[in-house]
């Protein structure tokens, strides 16, 4: 990936986070200031830090009585834009009642004529998660209790292997199954190459790897592959045709998600369940896939979809279609904590993605900077019972974790044309 240290703070930030931000041009009635004594929002602070090889955009919301909550934004690699959006929201959220979370959601999503979009919902997600953390702490209950309470005693996860050869993949799956995992995901062969990706050359390699895993571990293993929307419809169809029936339990995001009709076309060419949704930024986007029968697992990302408020609605839409959530969880401990509470509270759930396993430690769950975070018990997360999310940030470490410019690899096909990372 490309990184350097040219990231600078948004020039808008200081003025837009000031408590007396000038909204006079919109009329004084625009600002919904809560009465004194309410749990009024005193500060909304975006904090961008480098953890591992990439940035995490945390948001800390503090109320006048000194309580605070943490949120995280999921638009990885575009943190600068989301920071500016959080700052803009702060200008009209300061002074509001932090407990009116559903109303805050509506005001952020719909306050401008051009509602919605990924930057808006990534910022809104972080604020919504932080407000839930705050309310849980205020009431002395875990966030999952605010969502109806825990439906399960533990939150099962699926683990991934990014190994590059068949032998290494088999070794990783052995390590994972020995440690108790029953659901494992692989990536396309050569996933970690940083310059070129040739789908046609990749298809037989990835198919052979998956066939080898199925032959070695039998039908009891739940096996998926994340194709990272690198294929076309035709390439995905060819790939599926290379797999004997029963090889795969889910195929994740083989193509991009702008066009549900493309997935509808692909749906006629394979019977492998689709796991889709990590890029969705609203219930309206998710509904287009659920209503058309195109998502068999809902991969929503709580840090992009719009926080708990929107995630619970997508969970309800999914439940109506007998589709289980398989939440995307590729970020840091705040995202993981929010995802664990969501996963605990919804009835329709399969596995939560985990990026810390015996075969994969990406470094995003740094215990030095996050001294309190979700704990695993084998392949499961424990359902937390403390107040709020159950994650804390060592803020003294923040200056040492200065964020920088991060851009994921710009992949090319062998002919030099652009393809997705
Ligand atoms: Mg994915």
Give the H and E element order: EHEEEHHHHEHEHEHEHEHEHHEHEEEEEE
Annotation, overall tally of beta strands: 17
Beginning-to-end CA distance, first to last residue: 10 Å
Instruction: Please tell me the total number of domains.
Output: 2
Poorly predicted regions are 1-20, 24-29
Q: Over all CA atoms, what is the radius of gyration?
A: 22 Å
List each distinct ligand once: magnesium ion
The name of the CATH superfamily of the largest domain reads: Enolase-like C-terminal domain
Which structural class best describes the helix and strand composition? Answer: alpha/beta
CATH topology of the largest domain: TIM Barrel
Number of helices: 13
Largest sheet: 10 strands, mixed
Helix content: 25-40%
**Overall average pLDDT:** 92
Strand content: 15-25%
The name of the CATH architecture of the largest domain is Alpha-Beta Barrel
What general form does the structure show?
Answer: globular
CATH class categorisation of the largest domain = Alpha Beta
Describe the structure.
The chain has two domains: 2-141, Enolase-like, N-terminal domain (Enolase-like, domain 1, 2-Layer Sandwich), CATH 3.30.390.10; 145-389, TIM Barrel (Alpha-Beta Barrel), CATH 3.20.20.120. The protein is built from 13 helices and 17 strands. The chain has helices at 13-17, 79-93, 101-110, 118-139, 143-146, 166-178, 199-217, 233-241, 260-267, 283-291, 302-305, 307-320, 333-345, and strands at residues 2-4, 41-51, 54-63, 68-73, 154-160, 183-186, 222-226, 250-252, 274-276, 297-298, 324-325, 352-353, 356-357, 360-361, 376-377, 380-382, 405-407. Strands 5, 6, 7, 8, 9, 10, 11, 12, 15 and 16 form a ten-stranded mixed sheet that branches. The chain has a three-stranded antiparallel sheet with strand order 2-3-4. A two-stranded antiparallel ribbon has the order 1-17. α2 crosses α4, α6 (166-178) packs across α7 (199-217) and α7 runs parallel beside α8. Bound molecules: magnesium ion (MG). Residues 226, 252-253, 278 line the site of magnesium ion.
């Amino acid at each position: 990936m490309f990184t350097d240290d040219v990231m600078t703070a948004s020039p808008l930030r200081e003025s837009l986070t000031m408590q007396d931000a000038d909204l006079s041009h919109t009329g004084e009635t625009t600002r919904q200031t809560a009465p004194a004594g309410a749990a009024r929002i005193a500060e909304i602070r975006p904090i961008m830090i480098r953890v591992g090889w990439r940035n995490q955009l945390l948001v800390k919301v503090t109320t006048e009585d000194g309580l605070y909550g943490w949120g995280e934004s999921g638009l990885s690699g575009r943190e600068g834009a989301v920071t500016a959006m959080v700052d803009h929201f702060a200008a009209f959220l300061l002074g509001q009642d932090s407990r009116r979370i559903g109303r805050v959601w509506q005001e952020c999503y719909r306050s401008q004529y051009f509602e919605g979009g990924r930057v808006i919902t990534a910022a809104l997600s972080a604020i919504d998660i932080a407000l839930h953390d705050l309310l849980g702490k205020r009431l002395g209950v875990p966030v999952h209790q605010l969502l109806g309470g825990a439906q399960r005693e533990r939150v099962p996860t699926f683990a991934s292997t990014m190994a590059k050869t068949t032998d290494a993949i088999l070794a990783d799956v052995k390590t994972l199954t020995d440690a108790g995992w029953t659901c494992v995901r692989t990536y396309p062969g050569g996933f970690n190459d940083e310059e070129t990706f040739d789908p046609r050359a990749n298809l037989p390699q990835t198919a052979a790897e998956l066939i080898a895993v199925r032959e070695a571990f039998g039908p009891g293993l739940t096996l998926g592959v994340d194709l990272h929307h690198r294929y076309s419809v035709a390439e995905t169809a060819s790939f599926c045709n290379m797999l004997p029936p029963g090889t795969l339990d889910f195929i994740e995001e083989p193509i991009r998600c702008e066009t549900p009709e493309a997935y509808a076309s692909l749906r006629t060419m394979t019977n492998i369940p689709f796991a889709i949704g990590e890029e969705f930024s609203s219930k309206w986007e998710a509904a287009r896939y659920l209503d058309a029968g195109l998502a068999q697992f809902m991969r929503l990302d709580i840090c992009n979809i719009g926080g708990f408020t929107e995630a619970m609605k997508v969970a309800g839409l999914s439940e109506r279609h007998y589709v289980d959530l398989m939440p995307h969880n590729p970020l840091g401990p705040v995202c993981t904590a929010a995802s664990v509470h969501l996963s605990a509270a919804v009835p329709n759930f399969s596995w939560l993605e985990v990026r810390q396993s015996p075969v994969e430690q990406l470094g995003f769950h740094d215990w030095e900077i996050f001294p309190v975070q979700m704990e695993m018990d084998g392949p499961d997360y424990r359902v937390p019972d403390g107040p709020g999310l159950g994650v804390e940030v060592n803020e003294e470490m923040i200056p040492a974790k200065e964020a920088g410019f991060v851009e994921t690899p710009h992949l090319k096909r062998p002919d030099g044309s652009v393809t997705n990372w």
